[in-house]
Design a protein that fits this description.
The protein is α/β, with parallel strands linked by helices and about 300 residues long. The protein contains eleven helices and nine strands. It folds into two domains: about 140 residues, no CATH class; about 140 residues, no CATH class. Strands 1-2-5-4 form a four-stranded mixed beta sheet. It has a three-stranded mixed beta sheet with strand order 7-9-8, covered by helices on one side. The protein has a two-stranded antiparallel ribbon with strand order 3-6. Strand 1, helix 3 and strand 2 form a beta-alpha-beta unit. Helix 1 runs antiparallel to helix 10, helix 6 packs parallel to helix 7 and helix 6 packs across helix 11.
Amino acid sequence: MRADDLFTTITAQLIDDIETGKAGDWRMPWHTLADAGTPESVDGRRYRGLNSIWLPMVAAAHGWTSGTWATYRGWQRHRAQVRRGERAAQVVLWKQTRPDDTDHTDSDDEPRRPRLLARAYAVFAAEQVDGADEILARRRQPARDTPERIDAAETYFAAVGAHVERGGNRAYYQPATDEIHVPDLDRFELAPNFYATLAHEHAHWTGHPTRLARDLTGRFGDDSYAAEELVAELAAAMWCAQHGISAVTRPDHAAYLAGWLRILRADTRALITASSKAQAAVDHLNTAAGHTTDANEHTEESAA
């Protein structure tokens, strides 16, 4: 499959899932990521960006819960075998081109910068493989939403150091004052909902000019506000997956659905931009909090 065809497939599936969610309980498809945890390769490397969103969607559609993937040869390296007739999931691999050192731009004598070329490649879930049981037994994840995970979330956001005002009945980030506003914990039905909401607002916080300086107006024009909300939604799902916290679909986000659908329908690469910006937001928060994830993360630039 060509990478552009994969982008089209992922976008079409996301649109269909959003449309289905509109008629139901507003549960967004990227919350499969938060529920399942960040997907990993059989070598223990975490998938990032678009791949981290897409693979849990594929797994949820099949009822797979391991969150562990690898290429055909990757499973063979671990003495496991993909069963005959199993169908692979496609993920994106970004390869950096190597321009000739003598290749210069037309405007100056600076050499051309390397470009990223997208390619699709095939991976299989552990549920499609014989001989994966022993591997999975070593990777059992602790329970989600435990008191320990809630305490860790509180410690994390305290370490980030954003100005957070608690109280009131509405959650939002105020760029003019660089403040996050969120209702008190006891106003939420469940504690994980509070921290998922806090993650969403902290994602907005990362876009401040003194941090990531995220400006989506050039990319999305009149839909830049909806695009920013999509970035924060995806970032919150990534953060929840990373910390073992359940995601929550906020009713007030129903107002953004039309904008999200318009963005996705207009450009199949819009999701790449949104997921990349979301991953950058989570990375920024992790750095601010002094939080380290798996040192051998599976980036979209490396193979499974």
